[in-house]
Amino acid sequence: MIWNEFIECMDRERLTRLQNERLSVMVQRLYYNVPFYRRLFQERGIEPGDIRSVDQLKNLPFTIKQDLRDNYPFDLFAVPKSEVVRVHASSGTTGKPTVVGYTRRDIEIWSEVVARTLTAAGAGKSDVLHIAYGYGLFTGGLGIHYGAEKIGATVIPISGGNTQRQLQLMEDFGSTIIACTPSYALFLAEAIADAGISTASLKLKAGVFGAEPWTEEMRREIELKLRIKALDIYGLSEVIGPGVASECMDQCGLHVFEDHFIPEIIDPETLEVLPNGTVGELVFTCITKEALPLLRYRTRDLTALNYEKCPCGRTIVRMQKCLGRSDDMLIIRGVNVFPSQIESVLLEMSETKPHYLLIVDRVNNLDVLEVWVEVEGQFFSDEIKKMEGLKNKIQHNIDSALGISANVKLVEPKTIERSEGKAKRVIDKRKLR
Ligand SMILES: [Zn+2]
Prior knowledge:
The protein is an alpha/beta fold. It has helices spanning 5-8, 12-33, 35-43, 65-70, 104-120, 139-150, 163-173, 182-194, 216-226, 339-347, 384-402; strands at residues 84-89, 99-103, 128-131, 154-156, 177-180, 206-209, 229-236, 241-247, 254-256, 261-266, 280-286, 297-303, 305-306, 318-319, 330-332, 335-337, 352-363, 366-375, 407-411, 426-428.
């Protein structure tokens, strides 16, 4: 099941030629249409005709999220506003939101890459696609929507929230594929169990989950509880939205749609490009987008690339499941800690639930990590000794996996606030001072 076999299985030489042509045209467009990039090129003495191949990408400047904020709202657009048919924006928790725009052709490209994503997850025209990503300024809902319509699936644009209604429609409409965040998938699984609905009465067979990093253990948990195949999808609004990369049924890395977005892996400290297979920060260059083509956009996501052909037959490069974000990384007493590592520890234990909260504080100049963990109902006990034993076991497991000591606090099921969007896993009190 490959949506665009011509592209997705293209031989490397031919694909590189296509990328070279597109990159060269894109650089010229950026030079002539976006003053921000023209200035950067001029500072580096780069003429628009100089760039002819992807090998030269490493000489080009990076773009970071702050550049979008500095050029708020439309100054990075490479087309007149009359050509823009859609605008999305990220929620600006700090400062101004990040604004992205699309021409009619950009929307077509977006639908195409999402169609590839959904087809890779086994979706076809006879499927019922339950889209529980938020609709609106967030790219998740509408992004998946257009691709789902393109493949001819029956779309349920239910958006996020209102879980009881989600369950009812899922049952009544016979949803076969669900799209939402992985944490919401687990939340739904819990709600299904609480409502006494049997997964056998549902027609769900697969889910495409993204918009936040998640672990292999969380995948197993979702697959077990919802009895579906859980696939990882990757995207970010700055690049296009969902549809930048996606897993196939072999679940061995996410295929990057590199005829539109060229990936690179860099060292986030030195900014040097790293050799294939090395873990580093993922960077994307848009080579076909019209309204907002970003050059070497730093995603802050940590992953590695694999250029080997996939068992599914696709030849396009695969990126590893994201290991976290370079800016989500907590440095606790000098040790690099990703929330996903703690999650892995908890998911490996039968007594704990994958709901947790990390609270980092600094006491007497020393970093202190507190981990709140929800305990499975049948393991929650009034017996202090039993609970102490479990607490020590978790502390020991965190220590041996991460090399740091944590104070574990066991809490009853459903104590930790549930999120219907991206889960909040970390409270870093050190930053508040
Ligand atoms: Zn594959």
